[in-house]
């Protein structure tokens, strides 16, 4: 079974979706699912509002649904000022999977279009990819690194290509392989046009640097988006030679297709 490893319900600040609808839709689509509610401890100072949720409530409300096809995860915002706190969170609770995300960089909100108007594209991307490497080194306890293309969605910059930042990407991917952190294929955007060519370039570069595993992630905030664009992602992974996986009890499991 293929697992969708990244999605949000009403416990995340940006979703009002019910867990029961998520599970009904997953059953219809014959998908396993992992809910990964947002927890960015630094975002109040960056974005002006909390991206947080009550983890105890999460387990109280959702653990009764846990099964071979529904697993419980979390999406932790990476920030070296909060590394000790997020390390304790992922140790304290019985998560199946822990995603690491970079919604911020050195105190900057990476969804701020105003910020990007003042940035040089190539200088920003070099800094961003280098920062991702530092975050993996700082938080090697995460299972996967989410949406590498997050700032591209808001910046208006060109799509990333491995060959344009080969030195930086190579260092990042080798660090991920060393720390056994999986690279997510985030499918919030369809794999067409420049997005497809960007993803193909980057995941091929990941493979060339020793990466062998990817997770599939709809990043759904409504039930109807579960598994979106997965057919294209599966084909891309197969073409490159990457194995699709998910995590259960914090252990990598290869998807049986």
TrEMBL record:
GO terms for molecular function: histidinol-phosphatase activity. It catalyses: L-histidinol phosphate + H2O = L-histidinol + phosphate. One of its GO terms (biological process) is L-histidine biosynthetic process. One of its GO terms (cellular component) is cytoplasm. SUPFAM superfamilies: PHP domain-like (SSF89550). Residues 4-186 form the PHP domain. Keywords: Amino-acid biosynthesis, Histidine biosynthesis, Hydrolase. InterPro entries: Histidinol_P_phosphatase_HisJ, PHP_dom, Pol/histidinol_Pase-like. Pathway: Amino-acid biosynthesis; L-histidine biosynthesis; L-histidine from 5-phospho-alpha-D-ribose 1-diphosphate: step 8/9. Its EC number is 3.1.3.15. The keyword Transferase does not apply. Belongs to the PHP hydrolase family. HisK subfamily. PANTHER family: HISTIDINOL PHOSPHATASE-RELATED (PTHR21039), HISTIDINOL-PHOSPHATASE (PTHR21039:SF0). This is Histidinol-phosphatase.
């Amino acid at each position: 079974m293929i697992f969708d490893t990244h999605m949000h319900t009403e416990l995340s600040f940006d979703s009002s979706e019910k867990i029961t609808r998520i599970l009904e839709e997953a059953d219809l689509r014959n998908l396993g699912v992992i809910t990964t509610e947002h927890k960015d401890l630094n975002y109040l100072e960056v974005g002006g509002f909390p991206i947080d949720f009550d983890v105890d409530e999460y387990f109280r409300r959702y653990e009764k649904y846990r099964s071979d096809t529904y697993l419980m995860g979390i999406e932790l915002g990476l920030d070296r000022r909060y590394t000790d706190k997020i390390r304790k969170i992922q140790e304290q609770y019985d998560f199946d999977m822990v995603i690491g995300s970079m919604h911020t960089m050195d105190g900057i909100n990476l969804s701020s279009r105003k910020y990007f108007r003042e940035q040089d594209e190539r200088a920003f991307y070099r800094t961003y990819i280098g920062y991702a490497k530092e975050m993996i080194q700082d938080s090697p306890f995460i299972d996967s690194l989410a949406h590498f293309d997050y700032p591209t969605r808001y910046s208006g910059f060109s799509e990333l290509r491995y060959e344009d930042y080969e030195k930086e990407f190579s260092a990042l991917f080798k660090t991920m392989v060393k720390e056994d952190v999986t690279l997510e294929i985030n499918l919030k955007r369809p794999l067409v046009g420049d997005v497809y060519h960007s993803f193909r370039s980057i995941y091929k570069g990941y493979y060339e640097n020793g990466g062998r595993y990817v997770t599939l992630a709809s990043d759904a905030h409504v039930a109807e988006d579960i598994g979106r664009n997965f057919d294209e992602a599966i084909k891309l992974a197969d073409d490159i030679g990457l194995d699709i996986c998910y995590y259960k009890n914090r252990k990598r499991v290869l998807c049986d297709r």
